Amino acid sequence: MSHPHPELGPPPALPPGALRVIPLGGLGEIGRNMTVFEHEGRLLIVDCGVLFPEDRHPGVDLILPDFEPIRDRLDEVEAIVLTHGHEDHIGAVPYLLRERPDIPVVGSQLTLALVESKLREHRLKDVPRHVVRERQRVQFGPFDLEFVAVNHSIPDALAVAIRTAAGLVLHTGDFKMDQLPLDRRLTDLRAFSRLGEEGVDLFLVDSTNAEMPGFTISERDITPVLDRIFASAERRIIVACFASHIHRVQQVMDAAVDHGRKVAYVGRSMVRNMGVAGELGFLRVPPNTLVDVRELDNYAPHEVVLISTGSQGEPLSALSRIAGRDHPQIRIETGDTVVLASSLIPGNENAVFRVMNGLSRWGADVIHKGNALVHVSGHASAGELLYAYNIVKPRNVLPVHGEIRHMRANADLAVATGVRRDRVVVAEDGVVVDLVDGVARITGKVECGYVYVDGSTVGDITEVSLKDRRILGEEGFISVIVVVDSVTGKVTGGPEIKARGFAEDDSVFDPVRPLIEEALTRAGREGVDDIYQLQQLIRRTVGRWVSDSHRRRPMIIPVVVEI
Ligand SMILES: [Zn+2]
Ligand SMILES: [Zn+2]
After folding, report:
1. Tens digits of residue pLDDT in 80-107
2. Looking at the CA of 244, which ligand is closest?
3. Which of 396, 448, 466, 482 could lock 494 by a disulfide, CB 3.0 to 4.6 Å apart?
């Protein structure tokens, strides 16, 4: 992995009483957040999430943090602390627990309920669970944890303060400072301030929106916009949002009730998560509001709202299937209104635009954050981050949760509030940061790459096989089969050339056949009879020809058969 410290080697032994921070994911990318803390020979993990694949990861379902740096030390893990229930923080928990199922999992009520359904899917039983609340303090080995309420795009999110002999660490998790949040649960700035008074030695801070000036708009500002959309829609309304955005679903549900519409959930994760949220009281569902998607035919189009998954254009999601008129129950019609009440995660642009165009083709009105205020971010903008630094007054800062540009912008904010530049550590995944005698410094790196989940396999797909898939997808492949006489070395059959994704007509290969024969004859004269060498010769000959005459670089698979 690339990072700004190519010179770094493995970290030295951790001095007694010091604290080590090993980020295994989330620093240098938005996703698969996972940070390991080490103290007195014991480990604490904060978050364990997934990263969603992009176009450059063909066939990959999920990307996990690399557990390799701690694989031999899983016995030393005291607990996994989960700051909130987003996939980029909890999605990889089952994969870690597969390796040691009795690691205690610590998090808020909603977070653990969302984890629970994952554990069931992975058939993980008897995992020790510790439900915690804000302002609660619990001890795991040498780690004294205190939880702090934070406001984010999912309810029940927590920051965590970690006290050890090395000092006090405060990890914000994902947060913003909406001053009028829908559930009235504020980011607990009084706790931030109290911890600041005590002295925060290392502050790990969400960098996602550090480049955004000012303050993140309140969730509440979406309500009148939804109200206007509902007032003017004459037919069915479909709202797509993240299946974890319980407050957004609540807003849509409230608007539906106000405008006399029934609500149906569409998509497996939406049904599951809203079931959990409703049961635990995080979502208020008025009586006689919910209907099953299979009962929709009993209602006129202007009597229903569908709340759907698929806001990121995921190809198998409900919304993609609706856009392709491929959904078993829902048929998009002219005059329907579709609201994409979500952010557009970088890398998903093409997929989302495909869905929007698909919906428009059938005559739907598509409303999205580009043309109406139907989404606000869940992360603190620069103004809020400045507040956080001024309230906490940390001695050392480690920006987390962001691409490198976000983390650099966050670092600049810390410096602007008076944190010494040399105490603001910009690190990436695998870069080890030690807190020794109150000073945080980069001391080394551990090797950590990407772990790909493809169907039921974990880690079998490598960078090399992904590169092969990209070549196959973009350039196609050519196979060349040649039969040679094992005694004389002469070509007795072929070259037979087959191609896929290259040219429809095999006659395009007529000019290269004599080149292959010529190369093999010359090799025969020079006494080359090793099959591997002959195959390489064919690969080079065909590769050069295809590059010169077609400007292409397909995968070339030479096969030499001896008889
Ligand atoms: Zn989050
Ligand atoms: Zn996150």
Report:
1. 999 999 999 999 999 999 999 999 999 9
2. 1
3. 482
